[in-house]
């Protein structure tokens, strides 16, 4: 019996998408760059591209399946330490395909449904790290594969025991500074109110003084000279003095 030919090793290395994405790496998923133009010239219309996911320390022991029936499933990850997912037509990775630039690994939360056996893209159970590679498979088995990625480490979820139930107490220095700032604020507010009060009081006093000065100011009429003495009675003016 003739042994199957080993798949062609392509120089492409998978990696996390370099584009700015929300949640590029989470506690259960990561966004992988979609390879384009990598399988052109090697793939037929009936071929499919798979993504192999393995724990970083188990990637060397991974063996490519010879048919679709031998593809390791997501449910085998805890025991086999690897699985294959994201089965996609090879045409979706061609240079002319308008496909999205990233692939979300671990984004199918329905993989845990009981009785589901199709290859699915379930959430990753631990931070890893993980390694991934793309595998081109035809009717006769694997045809080409990329290199394994560098280890990809997911985010770690915060443990409930590390979350403080109450806010931590502030340091004594912070308390002192806060007290000083509060005192300065109170003094400044008092000074502003006092200045405003003095200004208002001064305006009121000035208004009252102006009114009193007007009411108490004496009014002088024009100067009237004193009355002149009345002339002597008739008959006395023509006689010499002492004979009237």
Structure described in brief:
The chain has 244 residues and is of the alpha+beta class. It has helices spanning 77-80, 172-216, and strands spanning 8-9, 30-33, 48-55, 82-89, 102-105, 130-138, 141-145. The radius of gyration is 51 Å and the shape is elongated.
The CATH class name of the domain at 8-154 reads: Mainly Beta
Count of helical regions: 2
Give me the CATH architecture of the domain at 8-154, please: Sandwich
Helix-strand topology string: EEEHEEEEH
Task: State the strand order across the main sheet.
Answer: 1-7-6-3-4
Say how many strands there are. Answer: 7
Keywords: Membrane, Transmembrane, Transmembrane helix
Organism: Orthonyx spaldingii (Chowchilla)
GO cellular component, one term: membrane
InterPro entries: Uroplakin-3
Can you give a write-up of this model?
With 244 residues, the protein is an alpha+beta fold. It has helices at 77-80, 172-216; strands at residues 8-9, 30-33, 48-55, 82-89, 102-105, 130-138, 141-145. Strands 1-7-6-3-4 form a five-stranded mixed β-sheet. The chain has a two-stranded antiparallel sheet with strand order 2-5. Strand 6 (130-138) and strand 7 form a beta hairpin. The chain is elongated and about 105 Å long.
């Amino acid at each position: 019996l003739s042994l199957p030919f080993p798949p062609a090793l392509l120089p492409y290395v998978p990696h996390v998408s370099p584009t700015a994405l929300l949640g590029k790496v989470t506690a259960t998923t990561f966004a992988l760059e979609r390879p384009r133009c990598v399988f052109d010239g090697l793939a037929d219309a009936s071929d499919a591209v798979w993504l192999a996911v393995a724990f970083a320390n188990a990637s060397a022991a991974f063996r490519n399946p010879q048919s679709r029936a031998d593809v390791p499933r997501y449910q085998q990850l805890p025991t086999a330490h690897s699985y294959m997912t994201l089965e996609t037509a090879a045409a979706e990775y061609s240079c002319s395909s308008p496909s999205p630039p990233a692939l979300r690994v671990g984004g199918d939360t329905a993989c845990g449904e009981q009785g589901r056996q199709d290859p699915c893209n379930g959430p990753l159970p631990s931070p890893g790290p993980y390694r991934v590679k793309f595998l081109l498979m035809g009717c006769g088995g694997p045809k080409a594969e990329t290199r394994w990625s560098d280890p990809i480490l997911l985010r770690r979820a915060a443990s409930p025991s590390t979350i403080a139930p109450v806010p931590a107490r502030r340091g004594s220095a912070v308390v002192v500074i806060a007290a000083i700032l509060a005192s300065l604020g109170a003094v400044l507010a008092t000074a502003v109110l006092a200045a405003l009060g003095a200004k208002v009081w001064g305006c009121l006093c000035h208004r009252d003084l102006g009114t009193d000065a007007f009411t108490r100011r004496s009014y002088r009429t024009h100067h009237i000279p004193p009355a002149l003495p009345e002339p002597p009675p008739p008959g006395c003016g023509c006689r010499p003095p002492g004979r009237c």
